[in-house]
Amino acid sequence: MNTGLYELPLVFFTVLAQSAVGAWLVFTFVLLNEKNTKSRTYIHKVMLVILALLGIGFIASIMHLGLPIRAFNSLNRVGSSMMSNEIAAGAIFFALAGFYWLIAILGKMPVSLGNVWRIVTALIGILFMYVMNQVYHITSIPTWNNALTSWSFYLTVVLGGLTLSYALLIPNKQREYQLQHLPSLFAIGVSLVAIVAIYQGFNLHNIHSAIQNAADLVPNYAIMTVTRLCLLSIVAFLLFRVKNIGLLGISVLLTLVAEGIGRVLFYGLHMTYGMAIGG
Where are the transmembrane segments (predicted)? Predict the structure, then answer.
């Protein structure tokens, strides 16, 4: 488990970036159909929260690299390195989202151009998520190089994005859009997380290197997974029952903590065929 804790900057980066992209996708869809000017102004104001979380995630990633200059050096291998592609795609997404917000909040963004801009940014965000997932599909790390990694990463996009966007958009008193389906989608996402976690738990004993079994890397897997699922279940209950902004804020925090627990387990499972890190 030590590996998962050592990689806390990456835990923050991946979970926050995935949640921000997921929320941007929801905001993009909502703004396509929202005609009320006051409502659109509100949406653009709270969009700053998405950018702030994304910014915190990138700061965490720089902490992992040690020096900001290393991030720029990594861009030298764009096209040949998934990590370089991840940094490039993330930077482009952040820049497009940031400039969109700035122009929109100043009231200078035409509606038609804004629609195109958001969609293009969303597509870059999806590319960012795909590349981030591919970074961890390393053939020498059997605990990562499987479909469960993809499921884990993309489900964080869903859960984090839905909770964050719901908490930000529901308090809008001028809204014409409807969000009644988001809690149901979140509940479906939690069910999928449970299936993936249980399946992974049963299969850890089948993955081993020459010197260690994968299950030994995460001895607290069951306890941490149950805690994670309990937190997500509480969030699902809150989304169905609560419209209070304070409790919705707590639901966002609980979701991020729950997915953070899952990500700590993920990094704790780092194990190569020849050696293992953790214990």
Answer: 12-34, 46-67, 87-107, 119-139, 151-170, 182-201, 221-240, 247-269
> In angstroms, rounded to a whole number, what is the distance separating the alpha carbons of residues 236 and 103?
35
Let me know: does 248 contact 170? Beta carbons within 8 Å: yes
Class of residue 38 by CB neighbours under 10 A (exposed 0-12, middle 13-18, buried 19+) = exposed
Instruction: Kindly write down the DSSP assignment for every residue of 222-272, as one continuous string.
Output: HHHHHHHHHHHHHHHHHHHH---HHHHHHHHHHHHHHHHHHHHHHHHT-B-
Q: What residue ranges of the chain have pLDDT lower than 50?
A: 276-279
List the CATH code of the domain at 3-269. 1.20.1630
The answer to whether 71 and 62 have CB atoms below 8 angstroms apart is yes
Q: Is 209 helix (H, G, I), strand (E, B) or coil?
A: coil
Where do the structural domains in the chain lie, given as residue ranges?
3-269
Measure the CA–CA gap between 266 and 244, rounded to whole angstroms. Answer: 33
- Tens of pLDDT along 9-41? 999 999 999 999 999 999 999 999 999 999 999
Q: What is the pLDDT of residues 164-193, one digit of tens each?
A: 999 999 999 999 899 999 999 999 999 999
